[in-house]
Design brief:
Elements (H helix, E strand, L loop, with lengths): L4 H13 L17 H32 L8 H4 L19 H25 L4 H25 L20 H30 L2
Helix pairs in contact: 2-5, 2-6, 4-5, 4-6
């Protein structure tokens, strides 16, 4: 039987909040001294931090505009929305593989690029910032793809179910809560991306 979207979202959310595991035996140890790779990592750590800051700004707007500020107060509504957290288990795993992690990051960035359209509809007065976020998500994905090609890493293709149509919100309130969780999930996703890139700088 299919797992309800709300349950799936909570399970994936719990996975992403799990303590960051020590990553052993990473296959990129030989790249640790590669200056171009290190430059890529540090540049995109800063870029990811910038995107996180913009998401946090929009989260404050949602809090101020709709009084939607605390996730724990909205979990029951979340179960009806079909807004799932994009998985990044390949960036957590003990058997960390950079190409698999990078592929999941790129798939997730594509998913959030699409789902931010719901936030754009919700916050037309902040369209410039939402569109900047979409552009930055596309640019970060492109940066990672270029680095994968430069390193001649095998690419991994992940299912595209998270890039389907946006949930059909049944009410304005559900749309607002959906926007809240899209941003909350994106922030968690970016925190995991940041930790994965930072880990690679320490190999």
């Amino acid at each position: 039987a299919a797992v309800p979207a709300g349950v799936l979202a909570l399970v994936l959310g719990a996975l992403l909040w799990a303590p960051w595991r020590a990553l052993h035996g990473a296959p990129l140890a030989e790249l640790s001294g590669d200056q171009d790779f290190q430059l890529f990592l540090h540049k995109n750590l800063e870029f990811t931090r910038k995107i996180k800051g913009d998401v946090a700004t929009l989260q404050r707007v949602v809090c101020d505009t709709f009084q939607l500020c605390k996730e724990e107060e909205l979990l029951l509504v979340r179960q009806d929305l079909g807004v799932a957290q994009v998985p990044l288990e390949q960036c957590h795993s003990r058997t960390f593989q950079a190409e698999a992690c990078f592929s999941q990051i790129r798939a997730g960035l594509r998913a959030y690029h699409g789902s931010l359209a719901a936030v754009l509809e919700l916050l037309p007065g902040h369209a410039g910032l939402v569109e900047t976020l979409q552009l930055d998500a596309a640019n970060l994905s492109s940066n990672i793809q270029q680095q994968v090609e430069d390193l001649d890493l095998a690419t991994v293709t992940y299912p595209t179910e998270h890039r389907g149509p946006l949930p059909a919100f049944s009410s304005r309130f559900h749309h607002q809560v959906g926007g809240f969780f899209i941003l909350a999930n994106f922030q968690r996703f970016l925190e995991t991306v940041y930790r994965a890139l930072r880990h690679l700088t320490r190999l």
